[in-house]
Every structure is written in C-alpha cells, then in structure tokens.
Specification:
The structure holds two protein chains of two kinds. Chain A has eleven helices and no strands. Chain A is mainly α. By secondary structure, chain B is α/β, with parallel strands linked by helices. The chains are: A mainly alpha, B alpha/beta. Chains A and B meet through helix 3, helix 5 and helix 10 of A and helix 1, strand 1, strand 2, helix 3 and helix 8 of B.
Chain lengths: 281, 420
C-alpha cells in the first residue's frame, strides 16, 4: 500500500511538472528545433534580453497584474468585510452569489460584454480611443475581485467575532479596531487573494484580448500573435525565468512564514514561563 | 513598524507601476500606433536593425518631434479586421493581406494615402503599380503600399519522399505518405489546395465547386497527420512530417534548420498574396504614418526587414542589393529564384512566377460564400477520425456516473425508510 501511494504521488508530480521541465530544457537548446535537443546554449536568453518588444510586453503584463491585483485586493477585502457584517440574511446571500457570477462566467462572455460596455460608454462620452490601458485595468480588476472575496470571507468567518468587540471595549475606535485587530487576523486570506489575483491577471488572454486598446499589448496577446509564424524559443526562455522567479518567491515566503511561526512558538513558550514565574513569586 | 513598511512598499509598487505606464505622458510626444502581423518586422534581436527605434530617432532628427512607436501584433487578418472595424481603437498603420484590403476599402475603413509624402514609393516594383492583377485589391493605388509578398508551395522531405507526384498538388493526396502529410488549419488555404488540384478557380461563386473541394479534402483527411499553422515549422524541421503546404519564405527558415527539406511550386497553379501597408480612416497621425511608410521603404530598413522575415520584398532596390542577395543565397543557394521567380536580372524588374507557375490571389468573398466556406470547414473538422470513439467513451462514463448516483440515491432512501 505504501508503495502504491508513493508511485501515485510520483505519477501526479510527473504529470504536473514534465511540461515545465521540457520547456526549461528547450529554452537552453542551441537551435529553435523543438523536436530534438541539439546542444546547450544560452543563445535564447541573450536574444531575450536584446528584444525590446518582448520586454515591453512583459513590463505591460507585470504593471497590469500588480496594479489590478492591488486595487482588486483593496476593493475585495472591503467588500468581504462589508458582506460579513450584513444583518439581513437574504441580502447577504444574494450579494455573495452576485459577486461570484464573474467567476463562474466563461471568460469569453465577460470579455465581449466588457468590450461592448466600454465601446458604448466611450461613444457616449465622445472618446475616440474607446479601449485603452484603463479599460483593460478595469476589466482585470473586475474579474479579480471575486477571487479576493472568496479567499477573505472564510478567514473572517473563522475569526472570533468578539475580538473586535474586545478591541472596542479597550478603547479602540472602529477604524483602529479594524486595522489593528481584524486586518492582522485575516491577513493570510488577503495575501492569498492578492497572489491569486496577480497570477490570474498575469495569464489572462481572452478578456485582455477583447478589452485592450492599441496602446497596450500584454505578453499572452503577443505570444498568440506569433502563431502564424513560429513561437520563438525566447518565449521559452522568458517562461523559464518567470517560473524560477515565482519558485523563488514561493520559497522565500514559505521560509518567512516558517520563521514567523517559530517566533510565535518561542513567544508563547516565554509567556508560559513568565506566567509560571508570576505564580511562583 | 512592519505594517508601515508594508504599506510603504505597496505605495512604492503603485507609484512604480504608474510611472512605468505613464513615463511617456508627454504632450509633445506623438504616439504612432502600428498594428502588424506577429514576427513581421526586424526588431533588433540577434543584432538586427531595430526598425521602430530607428524610426523614432530618424523622425526626431528630421522633423524635430518626438515620436513613440507603439507596436502591437495580430495573428490573422480577421483578428485585425475585428479590431479596426469595432472602432474601439485607432491605429495609424495596419498591414493586412490583399483580400482584406479589398474588404477594408469596400467598407470605407481606409484613408487615401498622400503619395507626395512617400518619395520612396518609386522603388516599388512597377508590377504592383501597373499590372491590374497585382493590385486588384486597390485598383487605383490609392490606399496601400506593398510590404511583402509570397507564394504558397509544397515543402517536402527530400530523403523520405520520392514520388512522381513531386511538382503537383497530388503529392498531398499521395497514399504512400499516409500520416506524414500536413494541411493548413484555415478554411481558405485548405480548400484552396483542393481547388487548385482540381483546376477550380479559387474565387469561384459556384457553391457546387466549393462542395467538390470539400469532398477532395474529405478524401485527404485519413492521410493527414494534422491540420496546423505554426506547428508546421517544428514538425517539418523535426522530420515528424514530410509533406506540407506553406509559404516560400517560411520554407527558407525551415531549410536553415533542416537541409533535407525541398520546395516546389505545384504546376496546377497556386496562391500568391501581398501584404500592404494601409492607413485606417481613424488614424490620428496620418502624416507621421506616411513618414513611417516611407521609412519602411528606405533601403536600409527594407533590406533589414526582408532579411528578417525571409518573404519577398516588392522593392527593386532590395532585390538588387548585392549584400541582400548574398545573405539570402547563404541560406539557400536558390533562395532568390524561389522568392522572385526564375531569373532576376540586376537593375531590371524581376520576372514573376507566371512563366513557370500560374499564380492567383484569394479575392474577397461575398458574405454568403464566406459563411458557406466556414460551414464546409466545420463539416470537415466535425467528422473527425477520433470523434466516434472519444464521444462513445464520454457517454459511457457519464452514463455510469448517472446510474451510480441514482442507485446510491435509492439505497439511501431505502435506508432512511428503514430508520423511519
């Protein structure tokens, strides 16, 4: 049985990570042949760093992902806190399911309906440039918000309701109570929401395709446009770098949370010691 | 303390992002929106000439105004058409293919070009200006300036394919190479191969002839390994497929990696296309756009683009450039002949293919024909060889799950009834 579970895990990991490993392997290929590995070279990495269009697209994608994730996290957290404090049960349920709709909607529906809306409003306002960076940003924030709410709401539910009441009792203003007590308690949910929003925005193609204007091209759209000719191995190199960066981020954040946990454990221990000490003397 | 640092970091990220997106928010800089095919310009990789940056420099030096070229890309004429037609964004330059230019002109989406601003237009081959067939899409030469052109041919693996069908479209229907043949993954090009094979005009208005082409493709289907576009490169380079129709310029780039490949123009005739630079009516900087077009025809730029894309250039001063000729000949000894026809007399208008191969354009189809063409294509794709068994397996799995669920439900009910 033990062996079977090990084999099972191995197969799952292989399925998950072989494509990424192959991608990384071929980013070091000396030619742009994907059929066979012809030799090790850093050629594509060199070319990547001398290709302004790819970098511009990467920069655009990152700018968009960071901005939309930050704004969506702010709005989404506020929304989750608001929803959790609602007293009317039906209203609460209704709003929770309404916020879930953009998540359930197929991307293509969201994309086309957003484009229609932007063109409609743009025509009403008399804009010549109906789609731009801002429409793209709005679209990304919109589809990010539900994910933030989804990851923050359970944390609020798990939090002891009396915490903020206690803070208020001890002299906090409601705002202080939120920032000093509630927010730290739900912080893990907020950061999960942020990371989810960031990654979703990073690799979105369909919605971006419909809502982006002429001034702003993201990486997925650039890669898609290469498909009449050939997707160049520089894109493999770029993807490998992104994977390594994300991996590094994950490891660092895991190490840090591990550290925090250690500090917490120590603090608890020393508290106990103090308590015992207080009783003794 | 920690929190303040975090908020500061967030603020810094926001500012950073904002400055990045707005560092060119200068009222004096003009933004020129260029919308082109992907991988279709010399972009500075591998130490090549970076056309857009050089244009920005050139424009600043000549006119004293700052221009930022905002270069975005698309994958097909139809993608480009959707963006331009929606009117949601304004592009200053688009580079569609012939039939799409015809459609854009018909729908009054293009602005006439002021050729006084494009002195380099003189270098465009006479053929594109005076032969009505070669600028059928723009009969008065008012809206477009040719950028590249090319012809579809058949690429095959010389060591594996030894057939008397070489030289004809029949090679794509050769049973001996079952599973090693590739076909275009778009209706026009795929049906086109069948039409050329059967001697049907590719612009026919007869629905019956379109049906014939479909029947021909259905016959070919069991032999086809897959319907592909950009995967052709990898499959042909890696020897996993042996026969494929594609553009001559792309053959040259495949040949660079795999010298077992060879190329021919089918004797029954084949498709020629021209991609030309146009200015949409909604363009905001028409004069800058014209300067850009002129810059694209400049010798240095045009040579750099031709050496990057590998497609044929309509510019005589490119075609006759010694350095360009030797560059292309290094890639394939017969590159110039393949790209420009049999003979390329220096200093003269080059011969086109018509002497060896009949070439014809895909003209813009009437809407009802376009719809019919898509219908035919769906018919071909739906009758997939994998289809039957895959669907069957899916149905069986779904049926098992549904039956299982019902059985469980009934059992539970019975148990409940027992307890009650």
């Amino acid at each position: 049985m033990k062996h079977i579970s090990k084999i099972y895990t191995a197969i799952i990991f292989a399925i998950l990570y072989t494509p990424i490993l192959v991608l990384i392997l071929f980013s070091f290929n000396s030619t742009n042949n994907t059929g066979k590995f012809t030799g090790f070279s850093l050629k594509w990495y060199g070319e990547l760093f001398s290709s302004p269009s790819t970098f511009a697209a990467l920069r655009n994608t990152l700018v968009l992902a960071i901005l939309s994730a930050i704004i969506a996290t702010l709005i989404g957290t506020a929304a989750a806190v608001g929803i959790s404090k609602m007293k009317n049960k039906y209203l609460k349920g209704g709003i929770t399911s309404v916020t879930n709709i953009p998540m359930m909607n197929p991307d293509i529906v969201t994309g086309i309906s957003m484009m229609l809306l932007f063109v409609f409003v743009g025509t009403m306002l008399g804009n010549t440039e109906k789609l731009s960076f801002f429409t793209l940003l709005i679209a990304h924030i919109t589809f990010n918000i539900p994910y933030v709410i989804l990851s923050v709401l359970p944390k609020i539910r798990m939090m002891d309701k009396h915490l903020s009441e206690a803070a208020l009792d001890l002299g906090c203003t409601p705002l202080q109570a939120f920032f000093k007590v509630e927010l730290p308690a739900i912080m893990s949910g907020v950061s999960t929401g942020f990371i989810m929003a960031f990654t979703l925005s990073l690799d979105d193609f369909v919605i971006s395709y419909f809502t982006s204007g002429s001034d702003f091209q993201t990486l997925p759209i650039l890669i898609y446009s290469m498909t009449k000719k050939e997707v160049k191995p520089t894109i493999y190199a770029l993807s490998s770098l992104m994977i390594v960066a994300i991996l590094a981020l994950l490891i660092i954040s895991n190490l840090r949370s591990e550290k925090d946990a250690k500090i917490m454990r120590k603090a608890e221990k020393s508290k106990k010691v103090k308590k015992i000490g207080g009783k003794l003397y | 303390m920690k929190k303040t640092i975090m908020y500061l970091a967030l603020l810094a990220m926001l500012l950073f992002a904002l400055t990045f997106s707005y560092c060119n928010d200068d009222t004096e800089t003009i933004t020129l929106n260029v919308y082109n095919w992907g991988e279709y310009i010399s972009d500075g990789s591998e130490d090549s000439f970076d056309v857009n940056t050089e244009f920005e420099k050139y424009y600043y030096e000549t006119y004293g105004k700052k221009v930022t070229v905002n270069y975005t890309t698309y994958a097909s004429n139809e993608d480009m058409y959707a963006k331009v037609k929606s009117g949601a964004t304004s592009y200053d330059i688009v580079i569609p293919s012939d039939y799409m230019i015809e459609r854009l002109i018909n729908e009054k989406l293009l602005a006439p070009i002021n050729f006084d601003n494009i002195p380099n237009y003189q270098y465009i081959d006479e053929k594109f200006k005076s032969d009505p067939e070669f600028h059928y899409y723009d009969p008065e030469n008012k809206y477009s300036v040719p950028y590249t052109y090319g012809v579809v041919g058949v690429i095959y693996n010389e060591t594996e394919v030894k057939s008397e069908n070489i030289g004809s479209w029949n090679l794509l229907w050769d049973e001996e190479y079952k599973g090693k043949i590739l076909q275009f993954n778009n209706p026009r090009d795929a049906l086109g191969t069948a039409m050329y094979k059967n001697g049907i005009s590719v612009n026919t208005k007869d629905f019956g002839e379109w049906d014939t082409a479909l029947e021909e493709l259905k016959l070919q289907k069991p032999l086809v390994q897959s319907y592909v576009m950009d995967e052709i490169f990898n499959k042909m380079k890696g020897d996993s497929a042996w026969i494929a129709p594609y553009y001559v310029g792309d053959f040259l780039s495949m040949y660079e990696e795999n010298d077992k490949l060879a190329f021919f123009y089918p004797k029954e005739g084949t498709n020629i296309f021209v991609d030309a630079m146009c200015i949409p009516k909604s363009a905001k900087n028409k004069e800058v756009a014209e300067a850009y077009i002129n810059f694209m025809l400049d010798k240095e730029t045009a040579v750099a683009n031709a050496e990057y894309i590998y497609y044929a250039s309509p510019c005589t001063h490119v075609r006759n450039d010694e350095e360009y000729i030797s560059y292309m000949t290094d890639i394939h000894p017969e590159a110039m002949e393949l790209l420009y026809g049999d003979t390329v007399p220096l200093g003269e208008t080059a011969n086109f293919y018509e002497e060896q191969v009949k070439v014809s354009f895909y003209e813009n189809l009437a809407p009802e024909l376009l719809e019919y063409e898509n219908e035919l294509w769906e018919k071909l794709k739906i009758e997939s060889s994998v289809g039957g068994s895959v669907y069957l397996i899916c149905y069986v799995i779904i049926a098992v799950i549904v039956v299982g669920a019902i059985v469980l439900f009934i059992k539970n009910k019975k148990l409940q009834a027992l307890y009650d």
